[in-house]
Amino acid sequence: MLAAGQRLRRREDFAATIRNGRRAGRGALVVHYMQSVEARTEPAPRAGFVVSKAVGNAVVRNVVKRRLRHLVRPRLADLPAGSVLVVRALPDAASQRYDILESDLDQALAAVQRPRNRGGRR
Fold it and tell me: Does residue 15 sit within a domain?
């Protein structure tokens, strides 16, 4: 379980992160990341999870959410203060092994935190 200060709860926070943040998809996960402008008011990094009905029934969705929470909890400490992370599970997340989900999450987090290329696409 994530601490209360580490959880995203409001719909507006989820929507703002998905709309305005950086996105990276790897395997069965899509990670949305946004560095908050209000870092002084929100010192702790926060995380939220989106697991739709396409992933499976309620039991399967809850298992996927628990696995993702367990994977994200230690990684939150590495994020800068005021950052917001939304992890969205794709339908394949229900059938993925734990170590593959972990690898997908690490790769996606590295991708969204990588500095942007200012020279444009090549």
Answer: yes
Domain assignment present for 118: no
121 domain residue, yes or no: no
User: What are the b/e assignments for 17-34, b being 16+ CB within 10 Å?
Assistant: bbeebebbebbbbbbbbb
Give 13-59 pLDDT, tens digit per residue.
999 999 999 999 999 999 999 987 655 566 789 999 999 999 999 99
- The rounded radius of gyration (Å) of the Cα atoms in the chain is 14
Q: How far apart are CA 34 and CA 39, in angstroms?
A: 11
Report the domain count for the chain: 1
pLDDT over 90 at 118, yes or no: no
Q: Which of 74, 4, 75, 81 is nearest to 35 (CA)?
A: 81
